[in-house]
Amino acid sequence: MKQKLYYSIFVAVILIVTSFIVECIGYLALHNLNKSDNLRDIFPDRILRLREVLKGSKNVLPRYVGAVNLNFMPTPNYQISNFLQHNSDGYRGEKVNMLHGNKYRILFLGGSTTYSSGVLNPNKTYPAQTIKFLNQLLDSGMIQMKDFNGFEGINAGLEGGRSCDELNAYLHKFRYYKPNLIILHSVGNDAEIDFNNSFSYTPDEVNFRLTETYLVYRYPIPRIFFRSYFISYLVIRYDLLKKLNHDQPNMSNTNYYFCNWYPDIVRKEISNDYMKSPAITNISTLIREALYDSSHIMLMTFAVNKLSEECIKRPYYIKNLDGLNNALKKLAMKYNVGIINYNYTDIPSKHWIDDCHLDETGDSIKGKFVANNVVNYLKEKKIITIK
User: Fold this and answer.
1) Three-state secondary-structure class, residue 339
2) Long-range Cβ contact pairs of 197-205 (< 8 A, separation 24 or more)
3) Distance (Å) of CA 92 to CA 74, 126, 188, 257
4) Where are the domains of the chain?
């Protein structure tokens, strides 16, 4: 009996020591992964926060949540690094009351370049900087407005968002804020579609994308297992990081819900005429709805660093982007709306942090550039006068 007892104790000790060593390895590996995360400057402790979400911690919120009709949206009241990134209405930056006051309201729609993923302070994003410069011009007396006493903005940028997401966001949420002007900075993510690959092609790839709620909260491992650092490391390192883009999942490398009802002939037609692309169809719909709602709209071309590694590896992306940008200009002429010709050379190269995102100073320059374009457009529409 004593021998069996000693043997059981021995096995138990070995298991405990082994588990402790494994957990120490997992702890060190997870923290090392967090330190080496290429997004650590933008999203501090992203890896550790992701583990907390997997554990089901009530103290840590995911950056995005699933939403009916919207597919996904920024998590309301999301906070990181002492900044309230998302307000209680679920968009980045200062909250604007839905009921209109005496300020000229500008809605900024787009993807991560509108959200300003390279900027940690939500008050330093390009939409916030645009509003800041416009109000400075108004306060200095350089411009005058008869019917409004200032400008206010809504940053409706969605990281990883495509034209379909921007259209959904407007139709089901932001049209009710009754913006006076909409600035749409789109097509950057839509250009990711490879028209030369008939298997991977689907309109906007939206059917490949799963919300973070689905991917994380419905992860096929009970949450209690994520109390283990080692299991958390394995799952995050070898599975989730392959699917997550700024914490927003993109399943474009899988065959989830393959859109097989789109034949090859559709793909070939679009590759020859970008005016027939899903992106331009979505944006055309958005323009018509905005005009119906009596909003002005300005389309903004999408700029990238074509010499970046990301672009060099994907020549089809540059071809698509050029085609879609040209289509945006045609749309502006067709519907008689504004166009902002935004190019890579408008921002000094040192302020680009990758192929399309800017640092804080770069976003400030971009905000001033956009503000100047807005001034010219509003002058043309006789909404402001220039002193």
Assistant:
1) strand
2) 198/264, 198/267, 199/258, 200/252, 201/259, 201/262, 201/267, 202/258, 202/259, 202/262, 203/164, 203/259, 203/262, 203/278, 204/162, 204/163, 204/164, 204/278, 204/279, 204/282, 205/162, 205/250, 205/252
3) 8, 11, 20, 31
4) 2-58+210-249, 68-197+258-386
pLDDT of residue 268: 64
Band (pLDDT 50/70/90 cuts) for residue 235 is confident
Domain boundaries 68-197+258-386, CATH class: alpha beta
Higher pLDDT, 9 or 193: 9
The pTM for the full model equals 0.83
Regarding beta strands 244-245 and 181-185, do their DSSP bridges make them parallel or antiparallel, or are they unpaired?
unpaired
What pLDDT score was predicted for residue 208?
47
Amino acid of residue 142: M
Pick from 24, 76, 17: nearest CA to 229: 24
**CB atoms closer than 10 angstroms to residue 32:** 12
Instruction: Please list, residue by residue across 204-225, b when 16 or more beta carbons sit within 10 angstroms of its beta carbon and e when fewer do.
Output: bbbebbbbbbebbeebeeeeee
Which of 243, 230, 224, 244 shows the shortest CA–CA distance to 29?
A: 230
The whole-number pLDDT of residue 278 equals: 82
Contact present, 362 and 351 (Cβ < 8 Å): yes
Q: Is the pLDDT of residue 36 over 90?
A: no
The 10s digit of each residue's pLDDT in 86-101 is 999 999 999 999 988 8
Find the length of the chain.
387
Q: Of 373, 298, 295, 372, nearest to 331 (Cα)? A: 298
Whole-number average pLDDT of the chain: 84
